[in-house]
Please model this.
Amino acid sequence: MGFSFRTFTSALALSTLLAMGAAHAKELVMYNGGDVTSLDPHKLSGDWEDRVEGDIFEGLFTEDAKAKPIPGVAESYKTSEDGLTWTFKLRDDAAWSDGEPVTAEDFVFAFKRLMDPKTAAQYAYLQYPIKNAEKINKGEIKDLDQLGVKAVDDKTLEITLEHPIPYYPSLLTHYTAYPVPKHLIDKVGDAWVQIGNIVTDGPYKPVEWVPGSHVLTAKNEHWHGGKEKLDIDGVRFLSMEDVSAGFRRYQAGEIDLMTDYPKDQFKFIQENLPGQGHFAPFAGLYYYVFNTSKPPFDDAKVREALSLATYREVIGPKVLGSGEPAAFGWVPPGMNNYPEEGARFDWAKDPYPQRVEKAKELLKQAGYGPDKPLDITLSYNTSDNHKRIAVAIAAMWKPLGINVSLVNTEVKVHYANLRQGDFQVARAGWLADFNDPVNFLDLLKSGIEMNYGRWSNEEYNSLLDKASTTQDLEKRAGILEQAEKIALDDDAALPIYFYLSENIVSPKIKGFEDNVFDKHRTRWLSMTE
Amino acid sequence: MLSFVLKRLASTIPVILIAITACFFVLRLAPGGPFDQERALPPEVMANLRAYYHLDDPLIVQYLRYLGRLAQLDLGPSFVTKDFTVARQIGIGLPYTLILGGSAFLLAIVGGVIAGIYGALYHNRSGDWAIAAIAMTGLVVPNFLVAPILQLVFGVRLGWLPVGGWGDGSLRFLLLPVIVLALPHIARISRLMRGSLIETMNSNFIKTATAKGIGRRRVVLKHALRPALTPVVSYLGPAAGYLLTGSIVVEQIFGIPGIGRYFVNAALNRDYGMVLGTVIFYMALIVLLNLLVDLAYAWLDPKVRQR
Amino acid sequence: MTLYADKRRALEEAFAERDAEMPRGKPRSVTRDALRRLKANKAAMTALVVFALIVLAAIVGPYLIPYDYETPDWNAFTAPPSLETGHYFGTDQNGRDLLARVLYGTRVSLLVAVIATTVSVVVGVLYGAVSGFVGGRVDSAMMRFVDVMYALPYILFVILLMVMFGRNVFLLFAAIGLLEWLTMARIVRGQTLSLKEKEFVEAARAAGVATFPIILRHIVPNLLGPVVIYASLTVPEIVITESFLSYLGFGVQEPLTSLGTLISEGTDALGAADWLLLFPGGVLVTMLLALAFIGDGLRDAFDPKDR
Model:
């Protein structure tokens, strides 16, 4: 399509439309961070996109106010004895926003489309537990019908897995498991996501989208839950990069809900906006990864020395200011199918000066000392938080005789470097996609893309494999904990802190419940004028 | 006249081509790609994506393909905002940038000329000094510093104006971003106007007019203003360019979806097609505005007109 | 006081036209003349003293204060200015002494400005001299190229360069210098052209003196004026560009800092820790104001007719 006068005038018309939208009745205005890049559930990548997507689509399972999985489009489900076959009965009243029913065929179509290499879906791998999914996605099997997803009838769906997974309902709440409207895509193809075409099966539907500005939703009158159950009429998800500017708009009452906040304003918020700052444990880990394929970080002693000398207790309260809990383990607390506190470093309870002494000793053993200082680079992607943490940690390592050069690059360059192993120590982070510890433990498995440091341990790998075939949850947790301990003992990477979810919520909004997944679907919220 | 315009337009095509070529190769040589992200993709998926957007072809083939499509006025897909083509997205963003830039342009001219005239007529008095001081401040304080302060004062503390957003596009929403954008140019234009008017007022033909007993007001408006405007007009071309590209920061801070913001985000996201598309539009706009300024210049200055 | 609309105007008007009828051979006297006029300009002299003090502080200051710019004070994170702790400007979010950081930041900002300015002066002088001396078709082609470059939207290319050289800020500013030399090239070309016709150059040529020594002996000395003015106008421009890039998140690598980086960090703390903005902002504004007055004074000194 070329640029034409018509696109220009339609854009002008759009801005007039904007004007009318402003007079919405109960519209929640949300600071949503990044720009939404697509409404197609197979083409997303960010948590800000998930906030939009989770309101407008509904999978077999969906989240309650505390982000626990509850049946969504599925009315009931059965699991086979071996845990491999899941049969879902779909709700009779589940419908797309054009009134067409949501059928099992929509799900089959969606899963095939997700795995089809031609779709180039970025997060297809999340649903690799489905039988043959990985092979299809990687082009080893060409026949899409081999995928373990079948429509028994219009309202019955059968999914076969590669191996049993106890967290499957949680995985089914993810956007990669949403249905897509087959009847519409058959008709208009890729243009189905355009406003004007798009139909969705969630409580809301998108009605306006200006890239770089916002996505606006409205109630979906065909949603099975009934639109009278929804208190909020629609959400305006604002794309904004400048969080300080966003916070000023919040202070002026133009924004009702901030999904981030300027770190320097923490004290101000606690003092002047009591009860509005929601800082709660969040299933996410902030860590540094060592490039274990090259010296000096192929030496576990050097890795341990750096880990020992990292004074995690001051990062949350002092450097960040909002009190993130220090991470002495790999799996964040509060995960399902796992003890509240998994494995920890042996030295986690030692006082800091003692740790530093031990670190110096280890470095000496590794051959570094005052006459042979260790020069390393620490890479992080552009962000105020990453910068502050890197500066603080470099200062903590300095007394060991380690000279740290900080390397700050844009996010695209940073991850390209990580992918190519072009770093020594680098910042990384992980947010849980579903509620299970393997989500985090998989990051250190050999042959996984996200294992940037290329740390490799046979025992660790085999323990994870063993866990994936163990059905007894208690036993499985034990195996996983063993694996976590191995990773910690060998200092596979350097966990720093567990994330906090950081939302600033206007007192007008009720029903906002803090939870470890930081998911707050609008259907559970209400708003007073 | 028409041939002059056509010639000017034709001579800009190589300029735009050079810019496109430079952008294309600089971007591709820059490290990182559009699909590098926090959650690494399996190599197979990455390969799928690159094939989907033809990024696996040799660079020169991609370049020629881009030019070929451009010749058909097709700016291609956006790699990041996947549901929109580049052309459609620019179509959406351009009106915001034009309204913002245009309003700031008008404000800069009107504000700058009035302040300049005042400064010239009362020069070296307190009013003149006050204007000079404000102008200097407007020039040296970066706009990403002015904007938050204005937001805080007029939006948060006083509550007179919206802090950000476009709202219904009414004056209330436009006021702060337009002022921030126009401020340095009001300063520059007022200084230009002042200097030039003082010089004109000292010239012989004005002295003659005054000697004839024509009122001061009339002398200024009827005789001195037009010649004194020439340097201001010659500045408008570059000013238009600065205003268009200067809106990058303003759009970010005020949350306005103009093409300046698209450009920065696209450059950071390695959204190659989007960067090229915005550069082409910026260049075209700047060329067009410069042409308009030249025409205005010809109208003001008889010497140029005859050439 | 005349504040320039843009650099191109300010310099070309002052030099390109006038130089044709200037007496040659005794360039020093022109400079001495200008210096005398500059000394009489109180505003410019005050500005010069202020600027010199800032530069001096940036160079020797860090050695005189008890804190360095990179070591955190674990007992004072984001602490307000205090006489007791010795953090006279307070500390930043990492517990580092703000005074030390402001001094270093000033140093770095000036350094990148000097780098970019030097690159552009060198390239401009060489390009202009060659263009003017060789003349003919080469000259017109070279000048056409300059026109093309003028049409490129400066800030867009700065952002593209940043994408390219994101890692090394000094390299980045050397590259930015490569976008800035156009005005310099034009002036030098103008001077070279007028000089070429003079009898003493022809005499020198007839005596067998090579081209380059002629340029060096007769043209370069005359360039002192334009170069000084050019620098006084370019340095603040680069400092502002640097701060703009810092706002977008592309400042110098930590733990080094620059005024722009400090200000953009301070802006986020606006209302919560105002000193983080106040001190670096104050230094930047003072420095830019001083440079503006110096540039003004210099131009008036070298070009007495346009007062």
Summary: Chain B touches chain A through 69 residues (CB under 8 Å). The two ends of chain B are 11 Å apart (CA to CA). Residues 95 and 229 of chain B are 29 Å apart (CA to CA).
